[in-house]
Design goal:
By secondary structure, the protein is an alpha+beta fold. The chain is 36% helix and 20% strand. The longest helix is centred in the last third of the chain and has 20 residues.
């Protein structure tokens, strides 16, 4: 009986340690922008290698930022457009134009150099499904900026005044992608992004110029 109890206790300890283990970041293979998927600044289609080299189409969503919506004809996003207009302090009618500019910047950066996509799990965490829309997965993407430096795409969007710091609680990584998802880490990540947004606002970058 003692041996059985000991074995049972060890199993519980092993299970607990596996639950507490931080999730690892993975890098999907050979990511390429998929032009057939309608893109926003923070959501876009990419094609990656799946198992046995099979190419898979995925719609990715950036952690930590929210870009202006670009499709005013979509009734599902009109409420979001109004909310974004209030946040940025511009008329709702101007939001789609800024959304297109965000999408253009993202497309340009994804096509330049070799983007690196980082996900939890091979294909990334799923975003809650919306009826009639493609299933999306959370990602972080490293790109090459105009100076040739490697930067995070979400930071460049914030600095350009084409996004706001925004996102559900999630494990945010440092530059070396080694953070483990502690609450303090998530809060610090968003705090850093809000600083970038505040600077863009002070500098009157992008949408903060209050012009369409």
């Amino acid at each position: 009986m003692k041996r059985i109890l000991t074995a049972w206790f060890l199993c519980l300890c092993m299970a607990a340690s596996s639950w507490a283990a931080p999730r690892k970041w993975e890098e999907p293979i050979k990511p390429e922008l998929n032009p057939e998927v309608q893109a926003d600044g923070d959501s876009f289609g990419m094609t990656v290698d799946g198992e046995k080299g099979r190419r898979l189409e995925r719609t990715y969503r950036l952690y930590g930022v929210d870009c202006p919506e670009s499709d005013p004809k979509d009734p599902l996003v009109w409420e979001r457009i109004q909310e974004q207009a209030k946040h940025f302090g511009v008329p709702a009618e101007q939001i789609p134009a800024w959304g297109k500019k965000a999408a253009e910047l993202t497309e340009r950066l994804l096509k330049k150099g070799k983007p690196k996509v980082f996900t939890f799990g091979r294909l990334g965490e799923e975003v809650q499904k919306n009826k009639g829309r493609r299933q999306r997965h959370y990602v972080l993407i490293e790109v090459t900026d105009q100076s040739g430096a490697r930067r995070w795409l979400h930071e460049l969007l914030l600095e350009a005044g084409l996004a706001r710091a925004y996102g559900e609680p999630a494990p945010w990584p440092e530059k070396d992608l080694q953070r483990d998802g502690e609450k303090e880490t998530r809060e610090q990540f968003m705090k850093d992004l809000r600083k970038l947004e505040s600077k863009a606002k002070r500098d009157k970058a992008g949408i903060w110029r209050k012009e369409g």
